[in-house]
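Because discrete structure vocabularies remain unfamiliar, we reproduce here a specimen of the format, pairing a chain with its fold in token form:
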Amino acid sequence: MSQPVSSPVASRAPSAPTAAELLDFVRRSMADKDLIASLPLDPEGRTWVRLEGPGGSEAWLIGWPPGTGTGWHDHDESFGAFATAAGELKENSLTVRLPASGWKTLELSEGVDRERRLGAGRGRAFGKHHVHEVLNDSATDHAVSVHAYYPPLPLMRRFSRSGAVLRLEQVERPEDWQ
């Protein structure tokens, strides 16, 4: 007798959002003009407000002064989405999955770098283990974005990058940013 085959959809908790649902949430949120206007903007540093995301996800409204960014990082086992509500954000990402542990320095192969620009009204979803940095490289304009992650971020690994060399610098836990 054959065993039933389980699918990722069947094993997922009924309320857990998909990446497409997170993308839909960040797009709807970025279109909420009152929500976007409610974010206090600081000329010196990023500002953020925690939002109620769908299905128990973690969500944030983030303000980006000119010239600010996240630095290279990942979201561990969480997948997510983000959308730009105002201004433009640049995302640099890697098309390679990093080892979960046991390393401090990696040399990246050629061709793993990707760059995308997300102007106001544009967003994207990403999978688990996504390594990227997000930047507002405008010299004059603030950017505002909405981000959502599921499951809520268990940790973030922060990296430095020099050419093809990626170095693990720090592991942050939720208590470090909440």
About this structure: Residues 1-12 have pLDDT under 50 and may be disordered.
